[in-house]
């Protein structure tokens, strides 16, 4: 547990209390009692990444049918709007739920996606996975030329 776990509701809405807790977490490069643009940007990016990963974790729990902590292609059900889409619709042409996309997201090639890989699967444009970036580029070119 950390200090934030013990904050009461009143302190959560008290700006001064929040700043006292957050300031040391943001002032890290260097710790000099000042927050510069670099530190604030870094902290905001970290918080955004943490939130996306949290949402991906919740989404993964829906698809991990056998509860082994991984999602296989057979476990992944595309969203309902994809299932009901026709060939002419934008959603169907975007191949992000296809097996090729799944395999490109599988960085270690073990046939299942861990949380990081599943997050990359859901958010390929934000991934550092080279294989997935290549797939995304191919998909973009395919869409532009079709």
Automatic annotation (TrEMBL):
Domain of life: Eukaryota
Protein name: Uncharacterized protein
Source organism of the structure: Trifolium pratense
């Amino acid at each position: 547990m950390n200090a934030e776990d013990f904050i009461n509701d009143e302190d959560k809405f008290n700006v001064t209390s929040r700043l006292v807790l957050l300031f040391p977490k943001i002032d890290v490069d260097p710790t000099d009692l000042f927050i510069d643009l670099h530190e604030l940007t870094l902290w905001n990016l970290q918080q955004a990444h943490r939130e996306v990963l949290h949402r991906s974790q919740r989404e993964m729990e829906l698809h991990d049918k056998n509860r082994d902590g991984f999602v296989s292609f057979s476990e992944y059900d595309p969203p309902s709007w994809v299932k009901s889409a026709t060939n002419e619709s934008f959603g169907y042409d975007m191949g992000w739920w296809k097996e090729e996309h799944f395999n490109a997201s599988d960085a270690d090639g073990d046939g299942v996606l861990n949380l990081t890989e599943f997050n990359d699967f859901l958010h390929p444009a934000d991934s550092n996975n080279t294989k997935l970036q290549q797939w995304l580029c191919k998909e973009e070119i395919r869409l532009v030329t079709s």
